[in-house]
């Protein structure tokens, strides 16, 4: 579930055949660096211009300010060595800009647009590295990325709010009569439970639509994928067993 967590992630080391292991790590390190990008104390149009300039440099293959040079070079080398498209690396810069706090999304469409610029490109690179390069596999890769992201952000709702990020559309809060302050306070009433239940339903649906990818990935990689796909479902089940209390215990 790539996003804000630091350090080792499953699916980036032992799951991969040795010839592809360094490339998988380089792709992850790029994404991880963009979780905490270097940017000046700007806001509004000035900040947007900074990220746009970084994107242009990335498209041209030039050194960047936003990520360390060794991270950029290893990611670009991985793409060159394994014939991976470089565009998904560049696209993640747009997502990194959108993650700068405060983060709010008015609509589900806006949130999907962000996810499609942030975790979906990351997933596309990993899928391509794993051999899932067919056009028919693009949709399950996208849905799987959305599912892992939705599951992770639901489990880490409290931590995201502490960082002034909310990955539930504002329109859904309004529909359920839930305020941002209720979520910050961890005030778990029926309206909040209903909101979070619907989030688990959506996450399960995304994961289900990505399930076919497990049959396309071979060997050790396929086995690891199935394990972490089931693990995401178990996270959702645990949230349900807790009656949607994502503010206490391991979920926090």
Descriptive labels:
252 residues; mainly alpha; Farnesyl Diphosphate Synthase; 2 domains; 12 helices; 65% helix; globular
Can you give a write-up of this model?
The protein is mostly helical and 252 residues long. It has two domains: 10-100, no CATH class; 104-252, Farnesyl Diphosphate Synthase. 65% of the residues lie in helices and 0% in strands. The chain contains twelve helices and no strands. Helix 1 (18-35) packs across helix 3 and helix 1 (18-35) runs parallel beside helix 4 (87-98). It starts with 17 loop residues before the first helix and ends in an 11-residue tail after the last helix. Residues 4-8 have low confidence and may be disordered.
Q: Which band does the percent of strand residues land in?
A: under 5%
Number of DSSP strand runs: 0
Q: Report mean pLDDT, rounded to a whole number.
A: 93
Give the count of helical stretches. Answer: 12
Order of helices and strands: HHHHHHHHHHHH
Q: Unreliable segments (pLDDT under 50, ≥5 consecutive)? A: 4-8
Binned, the helix content reads 55-70%
| Major sheet details | none
CATH architecture of the largest domain: Orthogonal Bundle
> What's the CATH H-level homologous superfamily of the largest domain?
Farnesyl Diphosphate Synthase
State the separation between the terminal residues, measured CA to CA.
16 Å
For this structure, the CATH topology of the largest domain is Farnesyl Diphosphate Synthase
Derived structural class: mainly alpha
Spatial extent as radius of gyration: 18 Å
Sum up the overall morphology in one term.
globular
